[in-house]
Amino acid sequence: MKHACFRKTVIVTLYFFIMAGLYCAAGYQSAYSEERVVSPPIATPEEADKGAIRSSAGVLAANKAAPEAADEYGDVTGKDVGGKPAAEDEYGNVKEGKEEAEGEGARIADPIEPWNRGMYHFNDKLYFWALKPVARGYKAVLPEDIRVIINNFYFNLKAPVRIVNNLLQGKFKFAGLEVSRFLINSTVGVGGLRDCAKECFGITGREADFGQTLGKYGLGHGFYIVWPFLGPSSARDSAGFVADWYLVPVTYIIWPPSAKDDLVNPLSVIVYTHNTINYTTFHIGEYEMLKNASIDPYVSMRDIYAQYRKKKVED
């Protein structure tokens, strides 16, 4: 009974924010578009020596200017990252409660920053206290080849998401390629354990999700939101996450038999958690780089998310 109530609470909360986000999306986008907003500058390669660091994803960057005093984490200062003393009001146009990030043309409203910062710190502790230690132990037990096989399996499992969204975006060629990849990997690749479509036939597909699809049709982010356990998102992408969830086959497998046919069932949570742990083993250290190189990791994470999603929509 407690678990059922918890699932219902999660679902109701999720839909509340989604609906609120979609309702406010157009309003916030238009309201903030006219404001002059300056986010922490994205460092160029020439600025790398002054503290900017790019991650393997190619996006990590440090703020060029920084105050001399330690930030809220107490361990990173402008001097540490090579930045110059900043004018007190350099970021003065970032308004509390109505903060908007902009980087290389990407922007996202942040009207619920107190909630987002709280959830960011929750996820930060979750990563360092639980996910990272578990991922390290998992990595020590399972060889890389096995973890790659598991990663291939989960990637193949999400093929319906890519197929449907490529179709919705009018990317019929890529939808066909994803169908081919799914059929080849599910058969010759032994249930998706091997990416035979790419390795044997050189077939590559295209990532696609419903949040990206909504963006293709002109729907803006709405506002930035950080979910506990799930991480950075937006009102638009949260709705897309729910839609994509329905396209993953494991959502319809009820296990254990006593479980109810809810959106979030025990098996789907187990699969999602295991996939996250397996994925993290390949990326340990990246978040640490971002955090150490940023004056305000929360702002950096938000900027990276906005830029990443903008690029996905424009792809």
Description:
The protein is built from 11 helices and 6 strands. The protein is mainly alpha-helical. The strands form 3 sheets. It has a two-stranded parallel sheet with strand order 1-2. A two-stranded antiparallel sheet has the order 3-4. A two-stranded antiparallel sheet has the order 5-6. A hairpin with a 2-residue loop joins strand 3 and strand 4 (106-110). Helix 7 crosses helix 8. The longest helix is centred in the first third of the chain and has 32 residues, at 2-33. Mean pLDDT is 77; it is low at 21-99.
Short description:
The chain has helices at 2-33, 113-141, 144-157, 159-168, 172-187, 196-201, 210-216, 235-245, 266-280, 286-293, 297-314; strands at residues 65-66, 84-85, 99-103, 106-110, 224-227, 231-234. It is mostly helical. A hairpin with a 2-residue loop joins strand 3 (99-103) and strand 4.
Chain-wise SSE layout:
Elements: H1 2-33, E1 65-66, E2 84-85, E3 99-103, E4 106-110, H2 113-141, H3 144-157, H4 159-168, H5 172-187, H6 196-201, H7 210-216, E5 224-227, E6 231-234, H8 235-245, H9 266-280, H10 286-293, H11 297-314
Parallel strand pairs: 1-2
Antiparallel strand pairs: 3-4, 5-6
Helix pairs in contact: 1-8, 4-5, 7-8, 7-11
Q: Taking Cα atoms only, what radius of gyration do you get, to the nearest Å?
A: 21 Å
**Multimeric state:** single chain
Task: Give, in order, the helices and strands.
Answer: HEEEEHHHHHHEEHHHH
Helix content: 40-55%
Structural class: mainly alpha
Number of DSSP helical runs: 11
Unreliably modeled segments: 21-99
Side-by-side strand order of the widest sheet = 1-2
Shape: globular
Number of strands: 6
Separation of the first and last Cα atoms: 45 Å
- Report the sheet with the most strands, covering strand number, pairing sense and barrel closure: 2 strands, parallel
| Percentage of β-strand residues | 5-15%
Could you tell me the mean pLDDT?
A: 77
